[in-house]
Structures are given as structure tokens and as C-alpha cells.
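Exam review. A common question shows you a sequence with its C-alpha cells and asks you to describe the fold in words. Practice with the pair below. Do the first one on your own.
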Amino acid sequence: MVTVLCIEDEVEIRNLLVEELTEAGYRTLEASNGAEGLEMILSKWPDIVISDISMPVMDGHQLLAEIQINHAELSNIPFILLTALTDRENTLAGLRAGAADYLTKPLDFDLLLAKLEGCVTRLENDKAVNRSF
């Protein structure tokens, strides 16, 4: 079963994410900000991370940069960033920072699930390639 870490400071949105993902067959972990998310990533090694960008303590961009720079062994974990900001520059910044994908709020859960399925397929393909060596 694929484990998805949901990092979102808005409780209602986080609860909706967890509910939708659980119903879709994913195991979920939760964190309310980037710092808590980092602790969960380091201790639980989730398969995929869904993170809001605008959060207190440590935002989604800072969390992604922390993983990419200081925890290279975890840099292959796909990050899907969420935001209410819809400007092109913000989207490009997230993708250039290493995010696998980027979604705007309000969330379209069908689109989110499709993007998660794509991440799962890439993870499975990577594992198959690694086993062949």
C-alpha cells in the first residue's frame, strides 16, 4: 500500500485530503506545517508527499529545498505542491524546485488522484529498473 504524507495547515483541507486518499486506498500520514512534515519524512519515509505551499513555521518550498539540499537520499520522493496562488511564476518556482506536480485550490480530487496514480506508476517503474541491475 502506498503511503502519502499530507502536509496542510488548514485542518478542514487536511481532513478532506486524508478522507479522499483513504477512500482511494492510500495509507495516509498527516502534518500541519513543513517542520512537522520534515520530521515525518525523516522518520516514516512516505512514498509521496502532498504539501501546501503557504504554511507557518516552514512552507512547502522551504521543505522541498531542505529535502533536496540536505537529505539527498529522500530527494526521489515525489512532491505535489498545493496552493491558492494561481500565478504562473509560483507554479514555475515549485516545479523548478523539484516538485513532481503542482495543484491549485480549491482542489479537484479527481485530478489529484490522477496525478497520484502517475507518481505511483513512476515509483513502480523506478523500483523495477533498480531490481534489474
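Now try the second one, then compare your answer with the model answer below.
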Amino acid sequence: MDHLRLQQAFDRYLDLAPDGKKTVATYIFVDLMNNVCAKARTLDFEPKSLEEYPLWTFGVGDDLENSDATLTPVAVFKDPFLRGRSKLVVCDTSRNGKPFGPNGRAACKAAIDRCADKKIMFGMEQEYTILDHDGHPYRWPKYGQPKIPAETAYYICGVGIDRARGRALSDAHYLACLYAGIEITGTNSEGTPSQWEYQIGPCEGVSIGDHMLAARYVLWRCSEDFDVLVTFDPRPIDGPWTGTGCHVNVSTEEMRSEGGMTHIMEAIKKLSLKTAEHLAAYDPNGGKDNLRRLDAAMFCPNVKDFSWGVASRSAAIRIPRLVSDKGCGYFEDRRPSSNCNPYMVAHRMTATICLDE
């Protein structure tokens, strides 16, 4: 059965409503290998609050004698795929009462709780690349590459079949996130054909990671429906093409208030002293993945030199033009990799600019 007929066959079942108050809850979590995973369960009631969602477990293959890890619900969204009363449940992971795996949520929350008075907020610009089943960039020539203009900005925010490839997936993901209640604020095509971006936030504190994890899950589920692959590899395509990042926008209450530029500059100074620590936290392999992007790709900061600038997309830290004109707001760190752990990014940023650690 071809993919279109398979989707049409499935659609007829979406009108089937569970009996009584039964609810399908899909638990979303990060496994030991840093993969986003999910498993669904039936609840005999429709929970009215986060606390009513029960703990669950999943099996981990690293220890056959102690294989169960615990899933603790931390955020709930509407399910855009099963719809109705169905829910998506983002979970933290632990084993024997201790944080488990690469999730990093518990440590992030602990750091943010220590400086709750700062009211730190984050937004993240998640870039990704669409691929065919064979790993080839989506709708690229099988031999060679698309036209390479003098400036790859030709493709950014592009419209038309020659400049934008995969818009249906991007729009489907956008609408699905809005339905779910995920804080998605926009989307656009990027500097490489079949490369896209969506923006999450602003979110207060650790919730940025919860919304990012939910949005990534929704994207991968949408990619199943469109029969394509999605990669967050920071440098999936060789040649004169843009890398794939996850810029993070950061502000505290002081930065957002009148005269906030002074506090933005103080934060930038602190960041300049912690370059190695931040690069190590900005991808899941201690900075090695991101090095391929920062060393070679376009529109990226130089990995060797810390810099900042107003409206500069070659600097490590960019102050948006409108923020500079207003004198308060937020700054953008352009260094995080597309495959970054959002909890680790938020944790590292909080430790540097709020806790002086």
C-alpha cells in the first residue's frame, strides 16, 4: 500500500471516540541514547491537572537487573494526531530516585529555582533539515546540488519551488503545535534548500525544555505522515551551505525593564569568560558535533573568538536592532547546535548570567 492510501485508511479511525472517560495519554521522554521516544497508555479517566497523570516506567537495556526507569509527567499538551481527549505528556526520567540519562531537566530546574527572582525567560530557534529515505536532502538533484547563488541568503524565507522545499511539512508542524498548545511563535525556510526553522517561546524557566521536547516530537510525528526524514545534525550537507543551529534568546526581568541594556551588557561580559563551558553544553557530545558547523558553515560565529554585535549574524552574541533602539529586551546566543539539549542550554545560561558559576 502506498503512503497516501495508508494515510487515507488511517483517517477513518480518527472519528472513533473511546468509551466513557477513557483517555489516551502518550508519554514523551528522552532515552539513554538521547533519542526522543514515546509510548501510549489508556487512562480510565480524563485528568484535570498534571498531578493526576500517573507515573510510568520504561525499560532500559543498559542494566538487565535494574532496567526500569521512571517517567514523571512535567507538562501536558493536546494530542494533534489522535485528537479528542488524547494528550501528549512530556516526562522527566529517573531511576532509583535519581536523575537518569541525558535529559538534564532536574539540574536545570534546580539552577533556575535558585535564582527565581531573576524571572529568566528563553526562546529557541530550532533549525532542521528534511531528507529523503536515502539520507539525500529532500528534493535535491540525485547527482550534484541545487543552484548555488552568490549568497545563500537567496533561500532564506524563500517562496516558490526553486527556493523552498518542504513547506507542507513545516506548515503541518506549525498548525499541529498551535493545536497542542505548544508555545510556537513562527517558522521560515532557511539558507539551504530543504532546511527550515521554527521558533519556540518565550517560555519562563525550565518550561522552555518541555515545549522544545514536545515540538520535536510533533515534528517527527508529522515527518512520518509526509514519509520523509528529519535531521537535527548541525552540518548534514557538505559544501557552501548554512549549518543547522538552535539560537537561544535570553532575558531576565532586569533586561526586559527600562535601562535593561546595562544588564544585557553585563551578561555578555560574563558569557565572554565562559566560552569553553558553553560550547561544551551546546551539543550532546561536548561540543564535537557543533564544531563541524562553527568551523565551516555560513552565518555562524567563529568558534575560536568570542564576539558580540548589534544585528550581527556572524557574532556569538547578537543584540537585535529593535532591542538596541529600545534600550531593553533580550540577547541572542547563536552558538547552540540544532541537536542541543534545551535543558542543558538553559541550565548553562542560567548558571553563567544569574548564578555566576
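Model answer, second protein: The chain is about 30% helix and 25% strand. The CA atoms of residues 163 and 322 lie 28 Å apart. Full marks require stating both points clearly.
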